[in-house]
Design brief:
This protein has 367 residues and is of the alpha+beta class. Helix content is 14%, strand content 27%. The strands form five sheets. A seven-stranded mixed barrel has the order 2-15-14-18-17-16-20.
């Protein structure tokens, strides 16, 4: 079956003219460092058969609370409205912003809170978060909704969030207060645990994220920008080989906090996913949007919350953006941001699903 007929079967008529695939209108195609020993251009050229099966899903993960521990699943549906895995990043921790000196009080549309992640507070990695059958968020005890809402800054965007009450906030506050990032500098921040309202007509999506027809993608969960992150075990194996060769410890996939992990053995080359554009997992089509730049959060142990220089330092030798025109200051890249396109209602992905590459193209590395 050809690519066009397969997409025709999987994508509804009303989406054919406006497929919700994010492309960067100012797309910048960058080369990886010259010493990238894992370049797979020759291997990819040998794979002219577009829809061959080269891998299977080996792991599915959600993060109910942004920057807390992940939950491993055998199967997941996709949220119809936000196009992320169901319950992924529904909640996040925010901290109060100080009242500016030129203001006497907060105005109605002021951003009063801002998101907090492992970048600022690595000990968030030590908190387990689950959602029970009654839709309660469980940290150490159940947390109940609170009527207060805030406007919270999330990178350059503003999102409406609902406070989940004092019990949940106190639990997280104790952990944040003991974090080395704050205790060593005598800094003090007041945090709250919040959720994204079930009904919110604001569209949170980065300004640079556009669909093929030029419109906004629409609602998403409390991610940094895109609904789903896909990572390859082959790429992690290559990274760990380099870490071990340099006398350092290997790292688990959890450092990169992906949603979907794929495994393909000898059929899947390290970082081959850089050149994927459209893939089929089970019976759901995903558009591969751009590589994911990695920050010091990837250096945080997801069990202990301790921070080390790796893997970012070793990735600078073979996974760093080399363009002087980019504003990211030489970011390193691991895993791919993706968006499900077409028909997803009533469908799910599960561990063991096959992965087929329907379309390849030039890599996109931009932050």
């Amino acid at each position: 079956m050809g690519v066009s007929s397969l997409l025709s079967d999987l994508i509804t008529n009303d989406l054919r003219t406006a497929i919700a695939v994010v492309v960067l209108t100012t797309s910048l195609l960058l080369n990886l460092a010259k010493n990238n020993a894992t370049s797979t251009s020759d291997n990819n050229n040998n794979n002219d058969d577009g829809d061959c099966c080269i891998a299977k899903v080996s792991g599915i993960y959600i993060h109910p609370v942004k920057s807390m521990r992940s939950i491993s699943l055998l199967e997941s549906t996709i949220n119809l409205e936000k196009r992320c895995l169901t319950d992924d990043r529904r909640f996040m921790v925010v901290y109060e912003l100080p009242l500016p000196v030129y203001k006497k009080k907060w105005e109605l549309n002021d951003t009063t809170h801002r998101f907090l992640t492992q970048r600022q507070c690595p000990s968030l990695a030590t908190i387990s978060a689950t959602i029970d059958v009654d839709d309660f968020l469980i940290l150490e005890k159940q947390s109940f909704p609170h009527e207060q809402t805030y406007l919270a800054g999330l990178w350059d965007n503003v999102v409406v969030v609902e406070d989940l009450g004092d019990d949940a906030a106190s639990f997280i506050q104790r952990i944040v207060d003991d974090d080395d990032e704050f205790s060593s500098t005598n800094r003090k921040i007041v945090v709250r645990l919040v959720s994204q309202p079930r009904r919110d007509n604001r569209n949170y999506i980065p300004d640079y994220a556009k669909t093929w027809n030029g419109s906004k993608l629409g609602l998403t969960s409390l991610t940094d920008g895109f609904p789903i992150l896909i990572a390859s075990e082959s790429s992690l194996d290559e990274l760990n080989k380099r870490l071990i060769a340099s006398g350092k410890d290997s790292i688990p996939m959890s450092r990169f906090r992906p949603n979907i992990v794929i495994q393909g053995g000898n059929l899947l080359q390290p970082f081959e996913e850089d050149k994927w554009k459209i893939i089929l997992i089970g019976d759901i089509v995903f558009a591969i949007v751009k590589a994911c730049p990695r920050c010091k959060q990837s250096c945080t142990d997801q069990i202990t919350g301790k921070v080390s220089p790796e893997p970012v330092e070793i990735m600078k030798s073979f996974r760093q953006c080399t363009s002087s025109s980019d504003d990211d200051g030489g970011a390193v890249f691991f895993a791919q941001n993706a968006i499900p396109i077409g028909r997803i209602e009533g469908r799910s992905i599960k561990v063991g699903d096959t992965v087929k590459v329907l379309e390849r193209g030039d890599p996109v590395y931009i932050d």
